[in-house]
Write a structure and sequence with these properties.
Blueprint lengths: L6 H18 L4 E4 L2 E7 L9 E8 L11 E9 L5 E3 L3 H6 L1
Antiparallel strand pairs: 1-2, 2-3, 3-4, 4-5
Length: about 100
């Protein structure tokens, strides 16, 4: 069983996934201010159609490694209108 969101929120999430993959070769992994992060939707259905999830900061980022360490550093939210309300470096990633 899956979850749903508004088209606008889903479009922004897909853009983030695409831009992060173009940057790192890993869907969800991106760089911001010299550090590597990963964003991961929490797969919770919100009544308003927004998307939320967790942001982790890589301790040792190596896209060729099968084992990378990361720790949670925050959360993100894309509102039902497709606006990024919070999320370390996500607005900047979309501008690249």
């Amino acid at each position: 069983m899956g979850w749903s969101c508004t088209k606008e929120a889903g479009d922004v999430m897909n853009k983030i996934f695409k831009k992060s993959f173009n940057q790192s070769g890993i869907q969800g992994a991106y760089t911001y201010k010299g550090h590597w992060y990963n964003f991961d939707p929490d797969n919770i259905e919100h009544e308003d159609g927004s998307i939320t999830g967790q942001i982790d900061k890589f301790i040792d980022f190596n896209p060729k490694s099968e084992r990378m360490s990361a720790r949670k550093v925050g959360t993100f939210k894309i509102d039902p209108h497709g606006r990024i309300i919070r999320g370390i470096g996500l607005k900047e990633l979309l501008r690249t």
